[in-house]
Amino acid sequence: MKMKLLIILLFSCSLLLTGFDKSEEKEISSTVKSMITAINEKDAEGYIQTLNDYFIKATYGDKDFIRGNIGNFGHVDLLEFDVMAIKTYISYAHYKLIHTNNNDEKTTFCGEIILEKTKEGWKIYSISEHSDCR
Fold this sequence. Notes:
With 134 residues, the protein is α+β, with helices and mostly antiparallel strands. 43% of the residues lie in helices and 34% in strands. The chain is globular, with a radius of gyration of 17 Å. It starts with a helix and ends with a strand.
């Protein structure tokens, strides 16, 4: 009986550490989709809820900047999103999107999103861009 419980525990831990936990993958995808929806709906508070404090400070300075400028963030269409790895407190995903600014100019971006697991769930920690979006 103890051996069976130990095997179940080891299997469960290996799923979490290797990134094959589908519920975590769905939660990560949901966070990114919520971020994009908040940008498109000009919902500053919804956008802020998807970001961790480090990302807000490093990218915008503070939450008030987001609140005052969300109307200038344009529109985002997510084309591709793949969770690459899920660790205990951090995950990595690749993305490709089209950003349309307020002048209807479209730009394709791709890169990596790093998410951090917090008490409130997954939060965007970092977004990087690659120069080659094929």
